[in-house]
Write the structure tokens for this entry.
Amino acid sequence: EADIYQTPRYLVIGTGKKITLECSQTMGHDKMYWYQQDPGMELHLIHYSYGVNSTEKGDLSSESTVSRIRTEHFPLTLESARPSHTSQYLCASRSGRTEAFFGQGTRLTVV
Amino acid sequence: AQSVAQPEDQVNVAEGNPLTVKCTYSVSGNPYLFWYVQYPNRGLQFLLKYITGDNLVKGSYGFEAEFNKSQTSFHLKKPSALVSDSALYFCAVRDLILTGGGNKLTFGTGTQLKVEL
């Protein structure tokens, strides 16, 4: 089992609310990633980090923001959620030549 | 730029028959290749990887994949499929040469495997 955790697993919120999706890993990995995935569909990289205080936007434009203040923690924030943000969000981490380890995902529904 | 292609959206196979899920890639340097599996409402689980060495890589749950440099392919295979293998499979590539912003993991679009009795 990979030691990477996402909370919450499921979240239903109203339009306009601010939300933060949590991602933590206990493996000491320097690289962390956020992917967005619609049901049964491809993954799109929206944010990544190569270390503390390092964050970059991914291949898919996203209204979300991320921070990396601690190695183990990589939260994703939506300042004002909209129905178009409804999706599954997957967090991953890796280090060196290892494969990426994924969390269980957060399924977000904005109503 | 690196890319991965999974040409089949869905693969159907009868239980007990061999299965193949196709993947081709494009990188500027040497590839670092992966296969992941995803069950409904779950994250991705690592199956196997190729870095260097033998072209035939063995992974979890009886899966294996064959690296073919001349065809730039990394097809996933299993000699005898199980109903429980039904899931979404992703191929991914990373360029071993690139560093910094280029050293990202790029995923294919996924292939839905359906194994029936």
Chain A touches chain B through 24 residues (CB under 8 Å). Chain A is about 0% helix and 50% strand.
